[in-house]
Amino acid sequence: VFKLAGLAIGNGWFDPHRQYDVSEFAHGSGLISAGQVATLKKREQDCRRALSGGRYMYGACWDLLDDVVKVSGAHGKQKVLMYDIRQYAKTSAVFPPHHDRVEKYLNNKAVRAALHASQCPLVFKECTDPPYNALKHQDGLGVTREIAFLLERNVRMIFFNGGFFFPGSVAPAHEKKKTDRPRSKFHPFSS
Predict the structure, then answer these.
(1) Which of 83, 125, 175, 180 has a Cα at 20 to 30 A from 95?
(2) 176-183, Cβ contacts within 8 angstroms, sequence gap of 24 or more
(3) For position 56, what pLDDT does the model report?
(4) How far apart are CA 20 and CA 65, in angstroms?
């Protein structure tokens, strides 16, 4: 047991019911047409039914984002990066920029000592597959109830969603504000 004083969530994946569908954001960004939005909205209903039925690994849900990325570039050419729609690349491995520098820094012996991680056998690496593989069966589960639980207990939280990150930019925050957020000290802001 530990006392949680606060937490920060950056580009968080916390509400898949609202975050899988990126069609309106993609349309507003000029990546897809109004007709493509209508098609994706129909497919979103299939995704939501699956999630409501406890199917948290469902291809139709992943396709809501993946199909937008696919149509953003010609076959074999660069496509929009889901992490920053202002950038195009052949692979998402180029993101975030300079992640290799961060990895080198966090694996530095002095830095590891300062972080009390000298005895840890793991090497820091950005966005590795093992954590995803261990948790992917819960991809569509979401944690909004857990967030509400913590907010009701006055745990301090900060959420950062980059304005150009697909899943973080689909505006679940304003929907939560009106529906199921706790009435505690929650002050949404935008930049």
Answers:
(1) 175
(2) 176/15, 176/144, 180/144, 180/148, 181/148, 181/151, 182/148, 182/151, 182/152
(3) 92
(4) 7
